[in-house]
Amino acid sequence: MILKGEFVPGERLAEIPLAERLGASRTPVRLALGSLEHEGLIEPSPGGGYQMRRFTLREISDAIRVRGLVEGFAARLLAEEGATRPLLRALHDCLSAGDKAVYKARMDLDDYAAYVEMNDTFHRLIMDGCGNAALKRSMESLMGQPFAAPSAMLPMQSSMEEGHQWMQQAHRQHHALVQAIERGQGARAQALGEEHVEIARMNLDYASERPELAANLMPGLKLVGVHPGK
User: Signal peptide span per the entry (predicted)?
Assistant: First the structure.
């Protein structure tokens, strides 16, 4: 609901109306609000209870960059400790699916959907496969931040003239990352993981420069202040 743009910054979030809207009792709603405050998605309201907070572009960009650090280190661990054969097969399946989606003259909506599914799976495999519980918890926390997830900014990319080329570039990085893992090149895998998120940060910049388009494609961006009337 939050990332779908159903709330605006400063909007009060009261237990009873939310419980009625969700068809739930007040107790789980109260617990959920406390969890959202802990994650930094909402803040205490001056009149009591909670309200939606506004995020800055810098906060979102920083969260994406931190995701790169976490994923880069996870990739390094995989390269240095060795990935299992089933994991490598699954990663290569992702590469094949991505190749099919992006390496063509023009991508249609089904291709974009296939790429998003592949991309989410690829990044999840890296995190699950690294075997580091602390890293996974850090990633789970980051996933709660608006538009920090691996495929969060892809709707903007699908709207731009250069989007197809950027997607091909990102997928070439997927190939290079798997190659580094297979060859045990930890430092290279880490560097690739950190560099990989720069395309997402470029997408965020693109959205900030085109607020009306961003509001149509990604309504939740109104929380980040890149919408008309900012």
Answer: none
